[in-house]
Amino acid sequence: MDWTNTTKTKSGPRTDFDRHEIKIWVERQNTDGSFHLIFCDDVADTQTRGQKTTELSPEHNLVRADVFDDGRQLPCYPTNFGAMSAYAFPPLPKSAREVKAAWTESAQGFRFESKVSNNPAGFAFDAKVFSPFYGVLADDHVSHYVFDAAGDFVAQTDETITCRGKYNMVGHGGLKLLVNRMISEAALKNLTTNADAYFSAMSVYDQQIEAAVKAGHPSADKLLASAGTNLKSAVEQLTDPIFQSSAKELLDHHGETTQYAMKRIKLLDDRIGKPAFAFTTTDLDGNVVRLAESTSMGRFVISKTGTEPISGRNWEN
C-alpha cells in the first residue's frame, strides 16, 4: 500500500511544509489474528521564514508493527516511530453500539475519541487525537477519516491541528491512499528476509550503544567500535535497496553517534551521585518550579526535554 501525507503548519513568521511518502507491506497474519506490517516513511520537510525557504535533511524511517483489523496495535520497533501505524490504522468501533454512539481507544501512545460521521460514499468518522506531545504543543488535533468503498482501508484523512497558546500554531493536512496491490511470493520472501536481517541488526546496534554508555571508560571505545563493525557487516548482507539505504544512513552517522555516546558517558561521570544543579522552570500547568525550594529537596525530579528517547538512533534530536 502506498500513501502520501502532507501537512502545512504556520506559527508566527514561520511556515513548515511536511511531505511523507509512506509504503506499507503486510508480511503475514499472526496466530493472534493481528497482521505483521512493515512501514517505510520517506520524509521531506521545508521551513519558510519571510522570503527564505530551507530544505531540511530528508529522513528515511522503517518500522515493524503488529496491527489488528480493528486498529488495535502491539508495541512496535523502533518505538519512537509508532505514530506512523497509529495514523494509518486508527482504532475502530468494536460493536454496533459504538458505531451508533462513540468509542475511545488508544494506539501507540495516542488516544482517539471517535464518532461516526455522515458520508454517502462509505464508512467515515471524526476523531479527537490526544498524546503527551500534543498535550504540550496543541490545544486541538482533529482528524476526519474516510475509508475506501469496500471499507477495508483508510482512503483519505483530513487533519487540523490548532495551538492557541504561546506557540500560536495552526496546521492542516492529511493522508491519502494511492495504491493497494499484491506482490509476488518471491518478492514477499525477499522483503521478509531483508526485514528480518535489518531489524535484528538495528536492535543489536541500539543495545551495543547503550551497553557502551553503561560500561563507561575504558571499555566504551572498544564496544562502540564493535558496534560500528557489526553494523557495517549487516549493511553488506542486505540486498533490498530500501533496507540498504536506511542501514547505510545509520552507518554514515556512526561517528556522530560515537561522539554523542562519549558525551553521555562524560555527563554521567560528572552528574551521577552528585547534587542536582539548581534550576527554575515552568511546569505544564503554568506553575513556577524551583529545585532549590524546600518542597523539592530530597525528592526525585524528572526533567524531560524533547519527545523521543535519547539513543544512538536519533542522536540529532
Layout of secondary structure:
Layout (H helix, E strand, L loop, with lengths): L1 E10 L2 E16 L5 E15 L2 E4 L3 E9 L15 H6 L7 H5 L2 E5 L2 E7 L7 E7 L1 H6 L2 E8 L6 E10 L5 E11 L5 H31 L4 H18 L3 H12 L1 H18 L8 E3 L5 E3 L27
Antiparallel strand pairs: 1-2, 1-11, 2-3, 3-4, 3-5, 6-7, 7-8, 8-9, 9-10, 10-11, 12-13
Write up what this structure looks like.
- The protein is an alpha+beta fold.
- It folds into two domains: 2-179, Lipovitellin, beta-sheet shell regions, chain A (Lipovitellin-phosvitin complex, beta-sheet shell regions, Roll), CATH 2.30.230.10; 185-272.
- Helices cover 30% and strands 34% of the residues.
- It has seven helices and 13 strands.
- The chain has helices at 83-88, 96-100, 132-137, 185-215, 220-237, 241-252, 254-271, and strands at 2-11, 14-29, 35-49, 52-55, 59-67, 103-107, 110-116, 124-130, 140-147, 154-163, 169-179, 280-282, 288-290.
- The strands form two sheets. Strands 1, 2, 3, 4, 5, 6, 7, 8, 9, 10 and 11 form an eleven-stranded antiparallel β-sheet that branches.
- α4 (185-215) packs antiparallel against α5.
